[in-house]
Amino acid sequence: MRQIVAFLFLIALASTSLLPQTTVHVKVNEVMASNTNTIADPDFNEYGDWIELYNPDSVAVDISGFYLTDIFSQPQKWRFPLSGVIIPANGYLIVWCDDHNTGLHANFKLTTNGEMVGLYSATGVMVDTMSFGQQASDISYGRFPDGVNNWYTFFPATPGTQNYESNISGKCPIPDFSIQGGFYTGSVTVSLSSTMTGSEIRYTLDGKDPGPNTPLYTSPIQIDSTTVLRAATFKLQNLPSKPVSNTYFINVTTELPVVSLSTDPANFFSDTSGIYVIGTNGITAYCSSAPRNWNQDWERPITVEFYEEDKTKAFSVNSG
Questions:
Q1: Mean pLDDT for the chain?
Q2: Which of 134, 167, 200 represents a domain boundary (last residue)?
Q3: Which domain holds residue 191?
């Protein structure tokens, strides 16, 4: 009899270790719609969009069979696996929005122009919804404190962990170039400056994105051959500026309009993430007999500069 009582007691304990679906309080806690180097997913080693869910309760919750969507008119757009999707007490869960549609990889992507996200129960009851505006690369949008309805941008982002007040900040202004991109005879010397006190400017000459580990601007830069100069402004506890690109064509002559595309070379030619190579992370499609990177539905950030026939710059825009 004692064994039966003990067994029933264990069953009772097990039954209270998870919240029932009718009392789920899970929150959409943080989202990133442009993940270029913040975090790679563990399944495909890709830098996909992601949504972080947070369980504010003191017991774990099972959201197996729940639904996630980016279109409120389609609340059942993507369904979680039917078993094993547990968010620990006061814990986090990352869902990858990358079109893979397997495991914790949803069948949709997020857009950097801004959209909505909704979490629904297995019976179609709304659990939580949110919306976000335009996003910049590697800058997330989330709640602080976790689960509370106060929204901020975060840099660095904190996928799968607590959102910190120290990561909330303003945004640096773009750096100023003393000479704009264009066509020049002979070398040019370019000076960079910022209107933000206490900031620093980082730059590259190889197409890569400026970052904390790229050269620090300390003196004017001499350019002797055709080069893309990219620069961005940085300051602690502030979001970095968007990178600014200028192409300097040295001793180049042509009667045609010119388009300059600049990006990190890895976006085109990396074995794992390059979109123009066979690579090691491809899929078989479009009549190919073996996996090819270029068959992936990937987008990479670029800067486009367009120069008219008379070599005046018509526009420069960050694109994909």
A1: 90
A2: 167
A3: 176-263+301-319
Query: Which amino acid makes up residue 145?
Result: P
Residues 226 and 156 reside in one and the same domain:
no
Least Cα distance to 203 among 192, 188, 187, 195 occurs for 192
Instruction: Return d(Cα 134, Cα 270) in angstroms, integer.
Output: 28
Are residues 197 and 144 located together in one domain of the fold?
no
Assess whether pLDDT exceeds 70 at residue 209. yes
pTM: 0.58
Sequence-ordered list of residues with C-beta below 8 angstroms from that of 3, at least 6 positions apart, any chain = none
Note the pLDDT tens digit of each residue in 118-160.
999 999 999 999 999 888 889 999 999 999 988 989 988 999 9
Which pair of structure tokens corresponds to residue 151? 């929204």
Answer for the pair 192, 231: CB distance below 8 angstroms, yes or no.
yes
Percentage of the chain beyond pLDDT 90 is: 73
Question: Could you report the per-residue pLDDT of 229-281, keeping only the tens digit for each?
Answer: 999 999 876 778 889 999 999 999 999 999 999 999 999 999 988 999 999 98
Hey, what are 13's tokens?
């304990």
Residue found under tokens 């992936």: 296
What string of DSSP letters covers 239-268? Answer: BPPPPEEEEEEES---SS-EEEEE--HHHH
Burial pattern 160-189, b for ≥16 Cβ within 10 A else e, equals eeebeeebbbebbebbebeeebbbbeeebe
CATH code of residue 110? 2.60.40.1260
The closest of 146, 249, 147 to 188, measured between CA atoms, is: 249
Angle (CA) 256-274-301 rounded to 5° is: 60
